[in-house]
Each structure stands twice: as structure tokens, then as C-alpha cells.
Design brief:
Elements (H helix, E strand, L loop, with lengths): L2 H4 L14 H33 L3 H29 L1 H20 L4 H29 L3 H32 L4 H20 L12 H23 L5 H21 L9 H4 L2 H31 L4 H7 L1 H22 L1 H19 L8 H28 L7 H36 L7 H31 L8
Length: 484
């Protein structure tokens, strides 16, 4: 067994196999679910939290944005810290820090404390998420088993956003908005105990940290997420939007140049330059943009047009979750190895495209079973296939010392895509809704129809994202996968 695999567990009695690896996967997946669902679980609780803490609509977005900013801007640093100082250490510290921040946020009596807690959550998520994926990479050393493990991990990552909507609605309605934060303590405690028992401390590697690269990457990613967030709350014409996006482009370009010169780069270019791995990162970026943008406005449609409660809205996503789990678990373990990443990812993007196109046909009279459900099934089947392919190819062939930064890139692509999609689609919805109202000024009853028109326009743009993803996967992926 390689020294990198030894970081994850005790030496196996059978060479190359880590004992208790499936239990390790269960605890890693619990931690990943906590990180992913926290991006949406708080959204459902925001109106109640706003009424309780008395903050304005303008301030409300910062409860969501604060988490995204800290998480997105520090992911690469978190991945490299896990590689350099030990993945078990990073994982455990991330769990404790995230749980502590959740307690702080749940007990907050002011907006300032709540936003501070969300920032701290984002910081520890940036340490936790890449260390979780890198532990999976070094724990499963047999390609066939790694495929199954990545399928399970991808199913959790893919369904986490909609699980957050369901859990957030239930906790808010039955208990309090504060429990959407307190629940993280339970997730973190279970994962912490499992990791403490099953993982052994890793020997420290060379503690070389690329300080200039860290500053450039963190500042560039912060500017990128902040620019997208301002596009949602202000507009694309605001200097806080385009100014930060331009700054991000310059900073990330400087970061890329520096990585070719640094003796110990934060993001070694060998992680990016493999063709399948680069295609996987782009596919996950597109998927994050299309999926989270689509889910945002589909949630509005379910609650405002179909008049579903938060809990019923969460249950409405259950068929999509089941489809994601089914295709993600079979995709990474069997389908990708048999048919290759090019075909599987392309079919996944095509199915996701079909789901988005289906949603464009919704109107004010659409029901759930005949109107929404077919699109959810198509989307779920497609998203699961792309998640399975993306995560498996993004991590295949990665050397042990680079496992953390590869995991960080997976999360970074999803985070950036998740910021881009809602920002762009929010602008589209506002513009199309306003245009519809301007052309139907004499009919007050058209306000509802205008909202539906805005949502279906957003779904059309989400379909465009997936169409672009179809081109990316078709052109860039090789017919055969990388060797794990």
C-alpha cells in the first residue's frame, strides 16, 4: 500500500486494501452532506430568521453570501493545507470548527453575529470539503471499489442541495429557524467520532506553503464570488459587480502565471493539464451553474405558483434526489468504466438539458404530476451521471500528495458555478418579468403570469448552460477514462 493510502487508515491485512473503508466512506459522506446542504438549508429559514432578528431585505442576502464568500475563496488553500499537514487533522478541525460556528449562528441575537457565524462556517467548510474528498481518494485504492465509493459520494453531493430544502422546511416549521444551524452539530458529531476511531494520524509532509499563490487565489476567488453576489442584489452594471469580476480575472490570471514559476505551487499544473480532468472540472462548473440556478427558480415556482409549503416543496424534490442517487452510484462504479466518460457525461448533460427544456413549458395552470415531475426525473437522471463522471475523472490518476488540492478544485468549480448560475438567472428573471408587465400594463391579473414568464425564461437559460456543457463533454472528454 502506498504511503498516501496509509494516511487514511491502518495498514490493511490484504495489501492495497484499507480496513473499514466502507465505514470511513459513510462518515466522509455525512460530513460532505452537511457542507453541501448548508448552502440551501438556511435559505428556507431566512424569512423566519429575518422576522425574529429584524433585519432588512437588503441585509438578508448576506446570510447566504457570507458563507459562499468564505467557502469559495479559501477552498484551494484548504485543500493544500490538508495535503501538507494531514488530512485527518484537517477533517477533524473542520468538523469541530463548523459545528462551533453553527452553535454560534443558531444562538445569534443579531444579524451581525449570524453573519459572523456564517463566515466562520465557510472558513471551516473550505478545510473540511477538500479533505473529505482527498480521504476518499487515498482510502479506496482499487479502481472498481473507488468507482462505487465515488458514486455514493457523488450521490450525496448531487442531492445535498434539495435535501437541504426539505430538511430546512421541516425544521423551520416544526421547531425553529435556529435548528437549521443546530442540526449541523449532530452531523459533525457523528462524523467526528467515526473519523477519530477509524483514521490514524498521517505523517506530515513537507510544510511548504505557496504564500503569493495563496493570496492571489484567495483574492481572485473572493472577487469572483463577490462580483456574482452583487449582480444578484444590485445589477451587472454596478461597479461592485463588473469591477470585482474584472479584478478577479486579473488576479486569477496572475495566479496562473505564478503557478508556473513557484517552487511549491498551491495548485500544481499537473492537476489541471490532464485532458479528462480538465473536462471534468469544466463539466462540474457548468453543472453547478445550471443546477443551482434552476433549483432556485423552480423552488419559487413550487411555492408561489403551486402554493406548496416549504416541507411539501422539499418532498417535491424527492423523485429527483432518488434519480441522482441511482445514476450517480451506478455511473461511477459501472457505466463510466464500461462506456467511457465522453458518452456518459454527454448523455447526462443531454438529459439535464431535456429537463430544463421541459420546465420552460410550465405555466400558471401546470400541476406537479404532469407539469413538474417529468422534468425533475429527467434532470435527476442527467445530474447523477454528470456528477459521477465529473468526480471520478477529476480525481482519477491524482497522486497522493495532490489529493487535497484535486478535491478542492472539485468543490471550487461547483462553488463558482453555484454563484454564477443564480446571479445570471436572477438578472434574466427580473428583466423578463419587467418586460412582460410593461407589455400587459392594463391587466393586473398578469402579475402571476409575469412571474411564471420570468421563471420559464430562467429555465431556458439553464438549458443553454447544459447545452454548453454537452459541447464541453462531447469535445473534451476522451472515450476512455483516466487510470485511477
Amino acid at each position: 500500500m502506498s504511503s498516501s493510502a496509509a494516511e487514511a487508515a491502518e495498514p490493511a491485512p490484504v495489501a492495497g486494501l484499507v480496513p473499514h473503508r466502507w465505514l470511513i466512506l459513510a462518515f466522509i459522506s455525512i460530513a460532505q452532506l452537511m457542507v453541501v446542504l448548508d448552502a440551501t438549508i438556511v435559505n428556507i429559514a431566512l424569512p423566519t430568521a429575518q422576522a425574529d432578528l429584524h433585519f432588512s431585505n437588503a441585509d438578508r442576502q448576506w446570510v447566504v453570501t457570507a458563507y459562499a464568500l468564505a467557502f469559495g475563496s479559501l477552498l484551494l488553500l484548504g485543500g493544500r493545507v490538508a495535503d501538507l499537514f494531514g488530512r485527518k487533522n484537517a477533517f477533524l478541525i473542520g468538523l469541530v470548527g463548523f459545528a462551533s460556528a453553527s452553535v454560534l449562528g443558531g444562538s445569534a441575537q443579531s444579524l451581525t453575529v449570524l453573519i459572523l457565524a456564517r463566515v466562520i462556517q465557510g472558513v471551516f467548510s473550505a478545510l473540511l470539503a477538500p479533505s473529505a474528498l482527498s480521504l476518499l481518494i487515498v482510502t479506496f485504492t482499487v479502481p472498481a471499489e473507488r468507482g462505487k465509493a465515488i458514486g455514493i459520494f457523488g450521490a450525496v453531493a448531487g442531492s445535498g442541495a434539495s435535501v437541504g430544502l426539505l430538511l430546512g422546511g421541516f425544521l423551520t416549521e416544526q421547531f425553529s429557524w435556529r435548528w437549521t444551524l443546530y442540526i449541523n452539530v449532530l452531523f459533525a458529531a457523528v462524523a467526528f467520532v467515526g473519523a477519530l476511531v477509524l483514521l490514524r494520524p498521517a505523517p506530515r509532509g513537507r510544510t511548504h506553503l505557496d504564500i503569493p499563490g495563496t493570496v492571489l487565489a484567495s483574492a481572485g476567488l473572493f472577487s469572483l464570488v463577490y462580483g456574482f453576489a452583487n449582480a444578484v442584489s444590485q445589477s451587472w452594471s454596478s461597479v461592485n459587480s463588473w469591477g470585482f469580476l474584472i479584478a478577479s480575472a486579473l488576479l486569477l490570471a496572475a495566479f496562473g502565471f505564478w503557478q508556473t514559476k513557484a517552487a511549491h505551487p498551491l495548485l500544481p499544473l499537473r492537476v489541471l493539464l490532464d485532458r479528462n480532468r480538465g473536462a471534468a472540472f469544466l463539466a462540474l462548473l457548468v453543472l453547478g451553474a445550471g443546477m443551482l440556478g434552476e433549483l432556485l427558480f423552480l423552488t419559487y415556482f413550487l411555492q408561489q405558483v403551486l402554493d406548496l409549503s416549504p416541507v411539501r416543496t422539499g418532498f417535491a424534490y424527492l423523485p429527483m434526489n432518488l434519480c441522482i442517487m441511482a445514476t450517480a452510484m451506478t455511473g461511477a462504479s459501472f457505466v463510466v468504466s464500461k462506456f467511457g466518460p465522453k458518452l456518459v457525461a454527454s448523455v447526462g448533460m443531454l438529459l439535464a438539458l431535456g429537463g430544463a427544456v421541459w420546465f420552460t413549458t410550465l405555466d400558471a395552470d401546470s400541476g406537479y404530476a404532469a407539469g413538474v415531475l417529468p422534468g425533475l426525473l429527467l434532470s435527476g437522471l442527467g445530474l447523477g451521471l454528470v456528477f459521477a463522471t465529473g468526480i471520478s475523472q477529476a480525481t482519477a490518476g491524482v497522486a497522493g500528495p495532490d489529493a487535497g488540492v484535486a478535491g478542492a478544485m472539485v468543490n471550487t468549480m461547483q462553488q463558482v458555478g453555484g454563484s454564477l448560475g443564480p446571479a445570471l438567472l436572477n438578472t434574466v428573471v427580473v428583466a423578463s418579468t419587467t418586460a412582460y408587465l410593461n407589455s400587459h400594463r392594463s391587466q393586473l391579473s398578469d402579475v402571476g403570469a409575469a412571474s411564471v414568464h420570468g421563471y420559464t425564461t430562467a429555465f431556458a437559460w439553464a438549458a443553454a448552460f447544459f447545452a454548453f456543457g454537452l459541447v464541453v463533454t462531447g469535445l473534451l472528454f476522451r472515450r476512455k477514462g483516466a487510470v485511477a
